[in-house]
Amino acid sequence: MKFLTAFVFSVVAGSCCFAQNPDWWKSTTVYQIYPRSFYDTDGDGLGDLNGIIQKLDYIKSLGFETIWISPFFLSPQRDFGYDISDYRSIAPEYGDMGTCLKLIDEVHSRNMKIVFDLVMNHTSNEHAWFKESSSNRENEKADWYVWKDGKGKHGQKPPNNWKATIGGSGWNWHKGRNQFYWASFLPFQPDLNYSNSKVKNTMLDVVRHWLSKGVDGFRLDIFNSIFEDTSFHNNPGSLRIIPSEETPDGFFQKMKFNVNQEGSFEFATELRAVVDSFQNPPRFMVGEVFGDVETTKKFCSYHGKDGLHTIFLFKTLSTPFKAKKWRKMVEEFEHNFAEPFVPTYVFSNHDRRRSITPLGNDVRKAKLLAFFQFTVRGIPFTYYGEELGIEKPTLPLKTGLDPLAQRYKSIPQFMVNWTGQSLNRDECRTPMLWDTTQNAGFTSGEPWLPVAENFKEKNVQTQDRDSTSLLNFYKRIIEFRNENLVLQEGTLTIDEEISNGKVFAFYRELNGGKFLVLMNFSSKTVRLNEIPSEVMFSTHPSTAADFMSPFEGRVLKIAQNN
Ligand code: NOJ
Fold first, then answer.
1. pLDDT digits over 76-131, tens only?
2. Whose CA is nearest to atom 8 of ligand 1?
3. Range of the domain at 533
4. In this structure, are 319 and 208 located in the same domain?
5. For atom 6 of ligand 1, which residue has the closest CA?
6. Which end of the chain is more exposed for a tag (fewer CB within 10 A), N or C?
7. Is 436 found in the same domain as 553?
8. Is residue 370 located within the same domain as residue 445?
């Protein structure tokens, strides 16, 4: 069917070779790789690009189409690549340009897609641009960053009350310029000044550069912080202490003038125009943004113009694993991201605890979660090792390598444990578990972060041999999705009658084909009114027509495709 769609597009495009479906991204599946922790081929304890190349067949065997790789550009690595000092060079610990181009080719030769992680909002303070910009107030790049005079008698008080997204003033004093510079995240990550058209055009050239090398798209880092309001008014107060997935407000203020600005929505449309100028193959962008769904949707469409293809909907990370809560979440996503939009479903990443952790490390629940992710309408994002059920270890803040851990190291550990989140993001980034050998086969050297203690059970090699493993379940469910266009492209409607406090039920429909997806969120067997239809898939080996086992997920065929 995909082949047919491609053929139709080639005819429409009138080209001699196959043009690709511009909407390929709507039905894709994404595997996120944190390169430092994936596979080390040179024994330095850090993963590398060669390692990714060597493991592409593994990712392909899982059934994923797209890989997204966290940044591997030149960087002092103070935020492990999210602090870039040259957007066009590869960090030597990960490889070189030749290896990077080889990686792009190798991905494409497997009929897969590759998405880079682009940090447009800020650079490292060691980037040559910042060095020049901060050298004095007159140089050519003097206004490439957001500089402001301070307040108070000696100008040493921050220009306004704006807080960084991680708390504390986002204004940082620079002795050389006798001024403050703005950093939305950490002080060594100064924000670029997008009100300066030279900055904007330079960054758009970076985008063109990688697209012309064949990259299929970008994941855009803290994209809702790109623009600040140039009035620099103080932000109003708020009662919120901690920002959440639903609102960036926190630390007792509304982020009214520094987050989710019109300029950023408009910039998304400019970026889209650049990305769309590269066709054959068509490309894709997903934005990391925070805020309520209605506001952040403006990143996808603003004043009638297309923006980012989609955005992360991080509500998935905080929604309790309960039938009614999930139903509500899906309702909201479906309402706001109905065609032509597509929601995203992500349950862990390099900043968030592993998805099996809030599920009490229960593999049955992890299977049901994967079942949901690959049967719901949306783009599933799987974080490396999620398919093995890698668990979140407890790594103390004090000795954390993560700069956030260092910043918060005075917070007592019991308080961190209580939140259930990872303030020390090292916990989310421990090495991939390949086999039962030393360091789980990740490295022959000293791993940069500790390898999971239970790696002898949780690794790829061991789970591959066990037909009931989580790994083999991922393969099964992704294969099932890949074989059924209804699951990739069909509409979604919730079944009001079957859905209740324990069961969540929805239909997927396309071209006369109709599937009923049933999920039992409870630890009890539930009774179903017998539905006379063929069971196409189940998380469980045997299924009774009128019962569902605890944590079972099941797909029934209601009608055949035309
Ligand atoms: C969000 C990224 O996901 C995180 O890892 C990074 O530290 C910050 N943005 C700053 O770039």
1. 999 999 999 999 999 999 999 999 999 999 999 999 999 999 999 999 999 999 99
2. 82
3. 491-558
4. yes
5. 82
6. C
7. no
8. yes
Residue 191 is assigned to a structural domain of this protein: no
Q: pTM for the full model?
A: 0.95
Distance between Cα 21 and ligand 1 center (Å): 31
Classify residue 8: in a domain, yes or no.
no
From 83, 116, 119, 401, the mutation candidate for ligand 1 (largest count of ligand atoms within 8 A of CB) is: 119
Same domain, 52 and 100: yes
pLDDT of the residue at 94? 98
For residue 431, what is the DSSP state? P
Mutate to test the pocket of ligand 1, among 72, 73, 79, 429 (most ligand atoms within 8 A of CB): 79
SS3 182: strand
Selected catalytic residue, list 117, 216, 221, 386: 221
Instruction: Let me know if 288 is a catalytic residue.
Output: yes
Same domain, 277 and 347: yes
Q: Which atom of ligand 1 is nearest to the CA of 425?
A: 5
CA of 233 to the centre of ligand 1 (A): 26
Cα–ligand 1 centroid distance for 119 (angstroms): 8
Tens of pLDDT, residues 45-83:
999 999 999 999 999 999 999 999 999 999 999 999 999
CB 118 within 8 A of CB 219: yes
- Mapping DSSP to helix (H, G, I), strand (E, B) and coil, where does residue 5 land? helix
- DSSP of 186-251: -TTSPBB-TTSHHHHHHHHHHHHHHHHTT--EEEETTGGGS---TT-PPPPB-S--S--SS---BT
| Candidate from 117, 124, 221 with most ligand 1 atoms within 8 A of CB, to mutate | 221
**Integer angstrom CA distances of residue 558 from 186, 381, 512, 513, 531:** 52, 28, 10, 8, 9
| CATH number for the domain harbouring residue 525 | 2.60.40.1180
Asked whether 83 and 131 are in contact (CB, 8 A), the reply is: no
Catalytic residue among 288, 334, 402, 509: 288
Q: Which residues are bridge partners to 179 per DSSP?
A: 174
User: Pairing state of beta strands 171-174 and 301-302?
Assistant: unpaired
Asked if residue 524 belongs to a domain, the reply is yes
In a domain, 149, yes or no: no
C-alpha to C-alpha distance for 279 and 323, rounded to whole angstroms: 41
Protein residue with its CA nearest to atom 5 in ligand 1 = 351
How far is Cα 529 from Cα 149, in angstroms, rounded to an integer?
70
d(CA 60, ligand 1 centre) in Å: 27
Ligand 1, atom nearest to 119 Cα: 11
CATH code assigned at 301: 3.20.20.80
C-alpha to C-alpha distance for 218 and 309, rounded to whole angstroms: 10
**Same domain flag for 421 and 507:** no
- Number of folded domains in the chain? 2
**Per-residue pLDDT tens digits for 295-349:** 999 999 999 999 999 999 999 999 999 999 999 999 999 999 999 999 999 999 9
From 478, 510, 534, the end of a domain falls on: 478
Say yes or no: 434 and 514 in one domain.
no
Given 478, 508, 524, the domain boundary residue is: 478
Residue 471 shares a structural domain with residue 496 = no
